[in-house]
Structure formats: C-alpha cells, structure tokens
Specification:
This is GNAT family N-acetyltransferase. This protein is of the alpha+beta class and 187 residues long. Helix content is 22%, strand content 26%. It has an eight-stranded mixed sheet with strand order 1-2-3-4-5-6-8-7, with helices on both faces.
C-alpha cells in the first residue's frame, strides 16, 4: 500500500486505483455510488440520511470552499467511492454540547461501491481526509453514522473514534451514532 504523506495528499495511486480530489466530471458517478450504497443498506432519502442531501448531484461545487475537500477513489478508470471533509456546521450553543464546534471538521459521505470494498482503500482515504483536516487547523474530526452500516462502524472504532453527543447541524437526524476523534499532527 502507498505511504500517504502531506507531500502526496492530493493523489495516491497504486497501478489500478487512485485517490484524487473530485472534479466536475465525477459528480454523476459519486452521486450514483452514494445512492447505490445507501439503497443497499436501506438508507433511503425519506428517512433523513445523506442520500437526501440537495447537493448530492453537485459535490464538486459543494466542496470547492476553503476548508472543504472531497476525494474520489478511481479504480481502473471508474469512480467507485469517495469521502470528504468540511467544517462542522454549528447551530448548537456551547451550553448544549460539551464541546464547541469551533475547530471540528466533519468526515462526510464516505462511501465505497461493492467493487472496491475489501481492497483496503478505506484507510488511505481516511488518512488523506485526516491529513487535510490537520493541515486546515482542525483539532477534532466528527462523523455521524448508523448501526445499519456495521462495516463502517467497525472501521471508525478501529481508528479510535469515540461515541459522543450529536454536534452541529448536519441535517442527518436518522444517523443515530455520533463519533469524534482527537487529531494530532503526528498521526
């Protein structure tokens, strides 16, 4: 597996696959992966999952802001997964949660199609996201998930994420599990 450093954060490759920043041409493929995986696990739009997000068909534009980035996994020339980092949107006051949302990035829309699951691409994708968050000055990484995604939940636990209260205003009220990870520059 490729060693990921801040020097190669924008592109990781290994013969048949690469991780790179999203481009406009990737929008349909990314939306299809998210819709397909969501459907596979019963995460339907009517239940409040990320598949219902209005920006799903224009992810490149959504992640074009400062402090935001979305990467895709391209396998044998086809986009088959992705993940993004964005500042945690805050609508909660300091008294409503045990931590301020300042300095917290959110790991968003980390989905992989069946074709690349089990190929050990989740870790390098996560490492790129984590390194970006650190480089942007975030001190914590937050995510919301569901028990309906046991593989993802197991992966986040292995990475050291800890369950926490729901923070911010993600709009994903169906994701019953909130998790947070303290970021350090030496990881």
């Amino acid at each position: 597996m490729t060693n990921i450093t801040t020097d190669n954060i924008n592109q990781v490759s290994d013969q048949d696959w690469q991780i790179r920043p999203i481009e406009t041409r990737d929008n349909p493929a990314v939306a299809e992966v998210i819709r397909s995986v969501s459907g596979e696990y019963g995460l339907t739009a009517d239940k409040g999952y990320g598949v219902a997000d209005p920006n799903l068909d224009d992810m490149e534009a959504t992640y074009a802001a400062d402090g935001w980035q979305y990467w895709v996994i391209e396998y044998q020339g086809k986009v088959l997964g992705g993940a993004g980092i964005a500042p945690l949107s805050s609508s909660l006051t300091q008294t409503q949660c045990q931590t301020s949302t300042t300095g917290i990035a959110e790991l968003q829309k980390m989905y992989f199609s069946k074709a690349i699951r089990g190929k050990k691409l989740a870790l390098p994708m996560f490492e790129i996201c984590q390194q970006f968050a650190i480089a942007e000055g975030y001190s914590q990484l937050y995510l919301e998930t569901t028990a309906l995604l046991p593989e993802a939940l197991n992966f986040y636990n292995q990475l050291g994420f800890k369950r926490c209260r729901h923070l911010g205003d993600t709009g994903h009220d169906a994701c019953e599990i909130a998790m947070i990870l303290q970021l350090t520059a030496d990881k």
